[in-house]
Amino acid sequence: MIRFLVDVLVFVINTLYRDRAYQRFYVLETVARVPYFSFLSVLHLYETLGWWRKADWLKVHFAESWNELHHLLIMESLGGNKHWGDRLFAQTTALVYYWVVVALYLVSPRTAYNFMQLVEEHAHHTYETFVKEHEAELKAAPAPLVAINYYRDGDLYLFDEFQTGVKPESRRPAVDNLYDVFVNIRDDEAEHVKTMLACQKLDAQKTFKSPHTVLSPDDHVVLPPVNNQEVEVELHSANL
């Protein structure tokens, strides 16, 4: 069923937008960020009901939606949303998929994460093909300001936060032209796949942490004073 839903989405988008790359990417990014809204909604519901609190999951999924938002803003800056028909199709599809993923996540979180893994794998393949076929023209075009602010000049905390397979602050990509931007988006999609795979692990309830939560062996925490003396404790990530 999951593969069928993804295949239908891919077939429709590829058919309607075969020769309209930026419009296709606009639709893809509009839909791609919605499942993260679904995850957040259900997790907030569980916390509201007092069932459990998953702060790390909330942080990572919000960072993922923030990343997809900037992909969407980039596509809008390139004119992908100029036609009302494209906006209507993208937003209607997104609304349907929001409720589909909410239902999936309520019944089986691993299934919902598998769905999103397949969507992100398709996105990665789509961008990989695009940068190979249009490398020369993309390198001749400037990077949109929104991409420069997101990948280089802005606050990069949330950029690091969605990449659970990468050490924070270790990935600082170039953003000198439009080619770099699409390469960065392609690589972002690969990082989303890694995070979705991590969420599907059988022990994810215990092991899944946001990148900034996992402490390195060199990190120290100062505990409250004991007998007027501060106590410094070294924390090892393996013991968390």
From TrEMBL:
<keyword id="KW-0249">Electron transport</keyword>
<protein>
    <submittedName>
        <fullName>Plastoquinol oxidase immutans</fullName>
        <ecNumber>1.10.3.-</ecNumber>
    </submittedName>
</protein>
<dbReference type="InterPro" id="IPR002680">
    <property type="entry name" value="AOX"/>
</dbReference>
<keyword id="KW-1133">Transmembrane helix</keyword>
<keyword id="KW-0472">Membrane</keyword>
<dbReference type="GO" id="GO:0046872">
    <property type="term" value="F:metal ion binding"/>
</dbReference>
<keyword id="KW-0813">Transport</keyword>
<dbReference type="GO" id="GO:0009916">
    <property type="term" value="F:alternative oxidase activity"/>
</dbReference>
<keyword id="KW-0408">Iron</keyword>
<keyword id="KW-0812">Transmembrane</keyword>
<dbReference type="Pfam" id="PF01786">
    <property type="entry name" value="AOX"/>
</dbReference>
<keyword id="KW-0679">Respiratory chain</keyword>
<dbReference type="InterPro" id="IPR038659">
    <property type="entry name" value="AOX_sf"/>
</dbReference>
<dbReference type="GO" id="GO:0010230">
    <property type="term" value="P:alternative respiration"/>
</dbReference>
<keyword id="KW-0560">Oxidoreductase</keyword>
<feature type="transmembrane region" description="Helical">
    <location>
        <begin position="88"/>
        <end position="107"/>
    </location>
</feature>
<feature type="transmembrane region" description="Helical">
    <location>
        <begin position="25"/>
        <end position="46"/>
    </location>
</feature>
<dbReference type="GO" id="GO:0016117">
    <property type="term" value="P:carotenoid biosynthetic process"/>
</dbReference>
<dbReference type="GO" id="GO:0016020">
    <property type="term" value="C:membrane"/>
</dbReference>
<keyword id="KW-0479">Metal-binding</keyword>
